[in-house]
Amino acid sequence: MNKKISRLCFAALCLLFHQLAHAQSVQVEGNVLAKDKSPLVGVSVSIKGSSTGTQTDVQGHYKLQVKDAANAVLTFSFIGFTTHQEPVSNRKIISIILEEDQKKLEEIVVVGYGQQKKKDVTGSIASISNKAIQDVPVTNAQQALQGRTPGVDVLANSAKPGDEPTVRIRGTRSVTAGNDPLYVVDGIPYSGSLNDIGPGVIQSMEILKDASATAIYGSRGANGVVLITTIRGKVSKPVVTYSGSYGVVNTLGQTDLMNGQQFADMRREARRAIGRYNDNNRDSSDRAIFNPQELAGIKNGTSTDWQKLLLKQGYQTNHALSVAGGTEKTKYAMGIGYFKDQGVLKLQSYERYNINIGLDQMIGSRVKVGGSLLAAYSNRAGETYNGINNAIRMLPITSPYDENGNLVTFPNNDSNLPNPLLDYVPGTRTENRKRFRLFTSLYGEVEIIDGLKYRLNVGPDISQYNYGLFQGKNNFDLLIGGGDATARKTSGETIAYTVENILTYNKIIKQKHNIGFTGLYSVQRQRGDSSTANVRGVLVENQEYYNLGEAQNVTGVGSSLGTWTILSYMGRLNYGYDDRYLVTLTMRADGSSRFAPGKQWGYFPSVAAAWNLTGEEFLKGKRNIDNLKLRLSYGRIGNTGIDPYATQGALQRIAYSFGGKGVLGYTPQMLRNPELTWETTTSFDAGLDFSFFKGRLTGVLDYYKQKTTDLLMPFLLPYSNGFNSVLQNVGATSNTGFEIGLTGVIIDNPKGFNWTMDVNWSRNRSKILELMGGKQADIGNAWFVGQPTYVYYDYNKIGIWQSSDKIDFVVSPPKPGEIKVEDVNGDKKIDANDRKILGSPQPDWTAGTTQRFSYKGFELSVVAFARVGGMIKSDFYQNTNTLFGRFNNLNINYWTPNNPTNDFPRPNANQERPVNYQSLSYFDGSFFKIRNITLAYSLPESLVKRWQMSDLRVNVGVKQPLILAPYRQQWKGVDPEDVNVIGIDAPATWMLQFGVNARF
Description:
By secondary structure, the chain is mainly β. It has a domain at 23-101: Carboxypeptidase-like, regulatory domain (Immunoglobulin-like), CATH 2.60.40.1120. It contains twelve helices and 51 strands. It has a 22-stranded antiparallel beta barrel. The protein has a five-stranded mixed beta sheet with strand order 10-15-16-13-14. The two termini are 61 Å apart. Keywords: Cell outer membrane, Membrane, Receptor, Transmembrane, Transmembrane beta strand, Transport. Residues 117-225 form the TonB-dependent receptor plug domain. InterPro entries: Beta-barrel_TonB_sf, CarboxyPept-like_regulatory, Plug_dom, Plug_dom_sf, TonB-dep_OMP_SusC/RagA, TonB-dep_OMP_SusC/RagA_CS, TonB-dep_rcpt-like.
């Protein structure tokens, strides 16, 4: 019995020692090498399922303490190489060879009418991924481009909800025709508002910049092309995704206006300047220049902040629910979305509902059909409402309410200053633009033989809108001068379609020669019509704009129709030899109905070549050089640039007297020119794509030069002809620029801290080369040969005239306290000849960066961009700087005999505005903005799986928290970002946002 117990104890001890032997820590070491047996430095080596890990040293060697050496698995990961997992199996020495990750080289990018491997692309193309789009909360796709890629300049036109920014790719080319890029959604050219496409349904955006990339779109590619690809299904089980966010929106600041005391002092100084204020008898003088309400306000210390009364906290909310999945035969993706942006002005908002459906279906092994559908319904409220412009004129020494708390119609008995809060009374002002858009892209594709495919794309596009504006008799605008309630109703419909027949052939011959051909025949047609009616005298105001027939007077009725068609042929040949030498030849012919017969066709060729240097013997084995590709391209692209029927002239109706009676007749509205043809841009591009250190540093360099000829411009005529101009093809411009884009992996540690960075920088110089009739300048339009296409041409303020200055002007000598402008020609008088080119909105350079930091489940992203140089013009300093005392004024440092400043002139009650007041409105346009900061946390996988989910992520972000700019910090402006002129409109805002992303 004792022997049996002893044997059992011995067996138990052996089992215990065996488990302890397996559980004890074992040091594992080894080398990690590349395929050429060179050591890899910085490879992450970790134990699968734990946070224990290390990195290889400069010899590619590692050491790691491993518990449970019998069952542990090591994970080896390194940028540019495939991740490798290796069981330890009680070994103490484990050396491996990592395989290069070919995914980067084989990465597919979308190009015109197809896709290409990234290494085979010969043109200048930039890509923006879905993740980059989601980094910043945006209303539309254009906003997602801001500061993300070199050569793409995106500027907000205003902060109004639903407003779209201006996008320029490699500067401006045309002087009077369009400079907007062409947008192509799922292969179909897209026109109209991109607000109709929710950013959440976008998978990627590719920006085509040079002639080789854009010439394939011919007449519409002159200003660059943005290819938008929507989300498609993948081979997987059904995956349900929800994303939602809510943000509170606040103003970045208010226009700095005078308070009650400052305004009263300014009005006194304005009267003092003309000798109508006696400082020895201030009470009597005040009674002469202030009415009783204003005097009461001064006595009571009233200082009303009218802006604050109109502004409130706004909000943004965004929700999207989608399901996607599929099999090898059928792939699907569908979703619904809702977005609401309530502005900081009560009457302004934008609301959108979205539906997206994508389907791809294989029929047999050679036929594929599918399509995508994007539907949107939106309502934009208050698009023309400008409450800030109304508020900043109001006097701070008056109150909006009477003693009973009721709104006072005219707070200071001035018919030009009604109470702006009256617009907030329900039923006083209603403005809505309701839109419905159904955009579809349908296709059928058949592989005729191996490598030869035919594809049919059909893109019906239907949009409708209804716009209504009602202004009651107590509306701010109608109270100025008086008037009955007015209403306006406009509706329109646009029906467009695109049909494309595409034939592609790809063949690899003897493993060296890669040949690809794309042929296209397409037609695009658009028809739009609209009608409008304006009425005055809406007696029952709660009917607003819904019953125009009951109004007392019809003040305007109109309708319009516009139709155009483009017929196109295109051929593209791609040839590659040994993955080293690449050539692309493209020819496109477009026929446009916008031009007269004989001038309708334009021809747009391009050629591009690329050299993959990494395929050459002298670079093989260079372990720090992953990819090095030189690109050259040259081609022509066009711009239709005019509205339909512009070559046919137009008639307008006029009233005249005939036989003593008033009759209606018609007269030409503009001269017709049947010789009009395309604007043409010739473009050259030289580029370098590179990747170093196993993908840790990648980037692109580009230099380009463009020349646009046959500009569509008005040719000036003598007024004796009855017309002052006729549209002709005259003039030329040029664009030259340099671009840099870099992506760097600064720190890469899969089990710890990571840091990646994207940086881009670009410089563009536009210039007018020729004007009509060989002129060197068109002063009326501020066009000058040798200068940018848009300049500020005005008087140059050099200070304020001081009492000590010697004033020897021979005509209209200025007085101390008035604006001193430069006497350019030195004739001792200031007239139109003393205007000069002050500057241009064109910046010296622009840059953007995205920084991403991650640690375990946390991720922090920071997006910023900057514009340095350039000039802006501020309407605030031109229109709200009158200094004559009737309206409130910017809080500025103005001249007085006791304050001889050179900043701003002396107030003057005899001048509605200071002499040469417009010279006060030009400022340095430089700024730096942090667009967005987002902190996200992905919940642990174990917890998420317990909730039967595959992913759960929460985030908090702040949008536009910081602006650094001379206009803001030095001159008390709010936001210097605008296209050309800082308008008086909805103020810039910042937003604190909370969000969640869940996947099931």
